[in-house]
Amino acid sequence: MNIKTKLTLVIGVLVAMIVLLVSLSIVNLQILTATEPNSPAAGPGLQRALLWISSIGGFCIVIGIFMLTVFPAYFNKPIKKIIDGIKDIANHNYDCRLNLESHEFVEVSENFNRMAKRLSDYHSSTLAQIKAAKNYMETIINSVKEPIIGLNNELTILFINDEALNVLNLKREEVLQKPAQEISMRNDLLRRLIRELMDSQTENRASKAEPLKIYADNKESYFQMKCMQINKQSNNINEGYVIMLKNITEFKELDSAKTTFISTISHELKTPISAIMMSLQLLEDDRVGDLNEEQKELAQSIQDNSERLLNITGELLNMTQVESGKLQLKPRITKPIELIEYAIKANRVQAEKFNIQIEVQYPENKIGKLFVDSEKIAWVLTNLLSNAIRYSPENGRIIIGARQTEDNHIEMYVRDFGKGIDPRYHQSIFDHYFRVPGTKVQGSGLGLSISKDFVEAHGGTLTVESEIGKGSCFTLRLKS
């Protein structure tokens, strides 16, 4: 018997009882009406009729109360069990099962238990796959010999390999599922990593910080930090970060050895080169004899190459000073026009040789002064102007000038009208030893890189604007 049948039966019983009660009442009233009102038998008959009516009415009321009390509880109990079971399933309690005794809920109970079993099997298999994948990932991460740290979007540490724990001098149970910012309060290295991570995300750039100097493996080691952002492929929403530390100790040691070697060789070369140039000056003196035209050409060639070699050794020495951190600035108050005039004077002979006209653009209004190492900045302008002359056509012109910006900076620029630089190489030309492919003009490839280092040491910038066939403009920007 299903629920619908039982409800129909209950309603039918209640209706039948009400009809019976009404019928008896009508019959008794008819009997009382037919009986003489003043008859002695009317009193007891009336009393019996009222008694019967009262008894049957009371019985109906009791039955009704009984049904209202028992039947809702009878139906609510299994429904409540079903609701509780659904809540357990929603809370991932897939071991929940229903055992309803009511015949009408047996099918519901069986279907519910079948669903719970399937969910339990699926969850167990999925969980096993997740655990296996997690174990694979941990094995791979721990096999990497570089420190790796994984964080979610709230900077909670999700995973960390043994190398990172060793470098940070922490234990795994102290960091896993813990806020990195909280741990960094008592760990200087982690605090620096988190700060670099935040800076790289705020400035929307890859981290270009100086290598980290860390005492690891019983020696001083150098690590380069790399930050990667993990995004969802579907909507490109940030889900977390991965911090990797690349051990560059070996490269740092080789670079230091290279810098020391170049510095030593450059310094030692200056003495014989100076002796060669001194001998050439003596050879050109008339007191030691006249030179024929062929000998003069040979002497001039030796002098040109000696000067070029001397310039290269000077550039190498400047580079080693920058790389070794021994670059010392001696700033003083300088007018921009003085630096420009120095660069023009240093390149006058070269400009006259190729018949290059140098134009100066300087504002009529008074501009601010610079507090810089005038020798270093003058060297930069001289190098830029020398490059402009070398890459300009004969009988061409070059513009050198200065201007003051609204944000209290002074910009000095050198513009040529040569063949220009391909935009692909605008960043590479500032790298050590780089030369634009196809360039025929000889050079060491160090001038622009050293110039940029000198400018950045003053807190300034050196940039280039260039188009093929329209020339180039190098701009040096410093705070006034």
TrEMBL record:
Spans traversing the lipid bilayer: 7-29, 49-75
Designated name of the protein: histidine kinase
Signal sequence annotation: none
Broad enzyme group: transferase
Entry GO CC: plasma membrane
InterPro entries, A to Z: HAMP_dom, HATPase_C_sf, HATPase_dom, His_kinase_dom, HisK_dim/P_dom, HisK_dim/P_sf, PAS, PAS-like_dom_sf
Single Gene Ontology MF annotation: ATP binding
Catalyzed reaction equations: ATP + protein L-histidine = ADP + protein N-phospho-L-histidine
One Pfam family cited in the UniProt record for this chain: HATPase_c
Domain HAMP: 73-124
Highest taxon of source: Bacteria
UniProt key word Repeat: no
Residues of the Histidine kinase domain: 264-480
